[in-house]
Design goal:
The protein is an alpha/beta fold. It is built from 19 helices and twelve strands. Its EC number is 2.4.1.25.
Length: 498
């Protein structure tokens, strides 16, 4: 007798194929990909391939290492992702200025400043009303972010090194700062208006082509962020604002000493007491941006790895319980069933699995993890649930070709035997394996769609490598017949959405 697993959740309405590509990896003349024409061209490419989900990484303002998982705001968008071409169309930037300034972050910052000055001088009624509506709709985070970022730029140090009155948010000193920095604050608000306006344009374009945008929300936020400064009561900090304990994971697939992320941990009881306002606000912003959202490190909602802040490595930590059930009950009460995907990789206990299933959150299956440990390995395709998301690899993995080339001869032989000794070169056998899975969503990184090797890896966890987060593709590397070949695969495995 066949026993069916859990029916697909609301986020998994039918079989779909997805591609994983961060916005910064798009081609274009700027220092990184952005929300302009390159993003729309990529939507067209996905539609031609029959791919109906575009997954990307977090889109907040990054810090020095450019990691999208360490951002200065849980709500704001990165100004680096703002496209300059639409500002020329709006008359806020001249074509010759665009040509001169778009090639670097410094140039883009200058271009945005010029555009703001012209908006102030010549913005029409519709533009100004649009800005006013944006400010009203995003007031729950925008005021804290704009003041925080203006002060951060003025002082030039992390917020826990600010003068005591600003660090502890003395009302009189905050009012004085708002008055002193009013011009800077208004510009920061304008940048966010541009980001969210361009985002909605891209989202509408994607919807018209049948593409869903799939976001990624880190479980923790950066210490040097607007949220930790504005709501210190929600975080486990010392009185001076430094961290008492920090987040990470114990030794795992990626690191023998674990990973010390350094994010402040939550004071969960404070969050319970105020009805999880912090999380309601975060989800509200994510749903403005994306059709569906992956929650990174879902395991931490059942129990998280607490590391004393003075420890250099993550190995000296402990598991501490978290009120995940209370949180997701509150979120469902507020929003209804949310289209969330649980990143449930790593050391997953029965309690974590029960939490995920209780709230009908699809989990993740990564095929690069499948070929060790024999037939009991949960990542092998015959163990996949329908209500899950299967990947060849993620942004933290090597490319599939790079992974395969790094295996021993015996390991490659085992992979080949499992996959039926395919004639096709890697990564195509693993792409087919993902598409053939029972999982309702199969996601393939763009590097695998292009068949690229380890030189094109997006990130190596546990390292601060200058190459991390820098990868971009070029349209010249996309074969002209690739969309047709991809569309055929998507159709064969029942993932073509009409």
């Amino acid at each position: 007798m066949l026993i069916e697993d859990t029916p697909p959740s609301a986020s998994q309405d039918q079989r779909r194929a997805g591609a994983l590509l961060h916005l910064t990896s798009l081609p274009g003349p700027g220092p990184c990909g952005d929300l302009g024409m390159p993003a729309r061209n990529y939507v067209d490419f996905l539609a031609d391939c029959g791919i109906s989900v575009w997954q990307m990484l977090p889109v907040g303002p990054t810090q020095r290492e450019l990691s999208p998982y360490q951002t200065s705001s849980a709500h704001a968008g990165s100004w680096r992702l703002i496209a300059l071409e639409p500002l020329v169309e709006q008359g806020w930037l001249q074509a010759e200025e665009l040509a001169a300034l778009q090639g670097s972050d410094e140039g883009k910052a200058r271009a945005l400043s010029l555009a703001y000055g012209r908006f102030q001088e010549a913005g029409d009624t519709s533009d100004r009303q649009g800005l006013e509506r944006f400010v009203a709709e995003h007031s729950y985070w925008l005021e804290d972010w704009s003041l925080f970022w203006a002060l951060r730029q003025e002082i030039g140090q992390c917020w826990w090194h600010w003068p005591d009155a600003l660090r502890h948010r003395d009302p009189q000193d905050l009012a004085a700062a708002r008055a002193r920095l009013s011009a800077e604050i208004d510009f920061i608000v304008f940048e966010q208006y541009l980001f969210f306006s361009q985002w909605q344009t891209l989202r509408a374009y994607a919807e018209a082509r049948g593409i869903r945008l799939f976001g990624d929300m880190p479980i923790f936020v950066a210490h040097d962020s607007a949220e930790v400064w504005a709501r210190p009561q929600d975080f486990d900090l010392n009185p001076d604002g430094t961290t008492r304990v920090v987040a990470g994971v114990p030794p795992d697939y990626f690191s023998a000493t674990g990973q010390r992320w350094g994010n402040p941990l939550y004071r969960w009881q404070e969050m319970v007491n105020d009805g999880f306002r912090f999380w309601i606000d975060r989800i509200r912003t994510q749903l403005r941006l994306f059709h569906m959202v992956r929650i990174d490190h879902f395991r931490g909602f059942e129990a998280y790895w607490e590391i004393p802040a003075g420890e250099t490595y993550a190995i000296h930590g402990r598991w501490v319980k978290a009120p995940g059930a209370a949180l997701f009950s509150r979120l469902n009460q507020y929003f209804g069933q949310i289209p969330l995907i649980a990143e449930d990789l790593g050391l997953i206990t029965e309690e974590v699995e029960a939490l995920r299933k209780r709230f009908r959150l699809p989990g993740m299956k990564v095929l690069q993890f499948a070929f060790s440990g024999g037939a009991a390995n949960p990542y092998l395709p015959f163990h996949h649930d329908r209500d899950s998301v299967v990947y060849t690899g993620t942004h933290d993995n090597d490319t599939t070709l790079g992974w395969y080339e790094s295996l021993s001869d015996a390991e490659r032989a085992y992979v080949g035997e499992y996959l039926g000794r395919p004639a096709e070169p890697m990564p195509w056998p693993l792409v087919r394996c993902a598409f053939a899975s029972r999982a309702h969503l199969a996601v393939v990184p763009m590097q695998d769609i292009l068949g690229l090797d380890s030189a094109h890896r997006m990130n190596t966890p546990g390292t601060v490598d200058a190459k991390n987060w820098q990868w971009r593709f070029d349209w010249s590397s996309v074969p002209s017949d690739l969309p047709a070949r991809m569309r055929r695969l998507v159709a064969i495995y029942g993932r073509l959405v009409s």
